[in-house]
Amino acid sequence: MSSSRRIRTARPLSRAAAVAGLATVALLGVATAASAHVTVNPRTAEQGTYTKVAFRVPNERDDAGTTKLRVDLPLDHPVASVSVRPLPGWTAKVEKKKLPTPVKVGDSELTEAVATITWSGGRIDPGQFQEFDVSMGPLPTDTDRMMFKAQQTYSGGEVVRWDQDPAGGQEPEHPAPVLTLTPKGAPATQPAAAKGPTVMAHDSETASDGTARLLGGAGLALGLIGLALGGFGLSRGRSRS
What we know:
The protein is of the alpha+beta class. Helices cover 26% and strands 35% of the residues. The longest helix has 33 residues, at 3-35.
């Protein structure tokens, strides 16, 4: 093959590789950003029971650290007992509020309940995440979910509010963490696809919520690579003719 033929065939290959590489980076970046939400784990629990949940907080910024997290507990479905696991470097502040209407919990009447938990004093650096553990119960029996509105504060002063209801339709930009409540004895599965991915609620859920989305983005990127190489093959065939 002549040197001119080599040059003509090498250029389409380099273009295809460049296009495919850029597509891969772009798609993986989108998948990673889309998965970086504040979530509650596990995603399901039985009504009327005590459970431990972890509020998982990833840092979405490259130039700032997360320095504070506030979580609001739903007072329309209050919980009588709430306790926080100590986390080295962080201070937890628990605030209670008087309920508009007393709520019957077992044999007692609940007149106030924990309304907010605020963690501060620590730092989640770029590329890292942290989990904040809370034990609570008994969980409400008159609703099928609890939505925890959250506020994530960065070292630069930015506050991101995770307070949008993710129920039904397309996932909002800043969905609030939601704990799905199932009747006692019911299979502990995730809600329907409209409310999030279906995952069994057990300890293995500590895997990143963004893994599936990341793999999906990688699959799309590989598809684009295939198209780019196909175009190269066609261009090479034309140059030979």
